[in-house]
């Protein structure tokens, strides 16, 4: 099952890279048109894309985590978080893009929601296994 989740995570990450490439080069896509047709679609898109990526990355890494300052941090969430920060900040240096703090906040909301879902799922799976 984890191999399937890892495959989904890799394919979804490749999809996100493709979307980023299109946005960076000024390309168009039916996805962009669809997102523009929804109120706050860009922010919802950020939240859903990076939330889902975080969730499948956490599950695909078998809920591996480390402690930092009394908090349990999932490796998958930290990796996605770092990627998001680098990607969003890089937009300040790409002529066809603009850095938007609200996009970064939407990414963070998606990541936090995914961490919450993963935490509950892991707790449930752990209690069922014992």
Automatic annotation (TrEMBL):
Signal peptide: none annotated. InterPro entries: VanZ-like. It comes from the Bacteria. Pfam families: VanZ. The chain crosses the membrane at residues 5-24, 44-61, 73-95, 101-121. Keywords: Membrane, Transmembrane, Transmembrane helix. Residues 18-121 form the VanZ-like domain. This is VanZ like family protein. It comes from Halopseudomonas salegens. The lineage of its organism: Bacteria, Pseudomonadati, Pseudomonadota, Gammaproteobacteria, Pseudomonadales.
């Amino acid at each position: 099952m984890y191999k399937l989740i890892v495959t989904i995570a890799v394919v979804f990450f490749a999809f996100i890279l493709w979307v980023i490439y299109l946005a960076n080069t000024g390309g168009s896509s039916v996805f962009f048109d669809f997102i523009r047709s929804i109120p706050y679609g860009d922010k919802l898109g950020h939240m859903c894309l990076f939330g889902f990526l975080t969730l499948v990355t956490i599950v695909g890494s078998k809920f591996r985590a480390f402690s930092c300052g009394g908090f349990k941090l999932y490796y998958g969430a930290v990796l996605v978080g770092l990627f998001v920060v680098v990607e969003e900040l890089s937009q300040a240096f790409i002529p066809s893009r603009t850095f938007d703090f609200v996009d970064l906040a939407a990414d963070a909301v998606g990541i936090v929601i995914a961490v919450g879902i993963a935490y509950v799922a892991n707790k449930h799976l752990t209690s069922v296994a014992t």
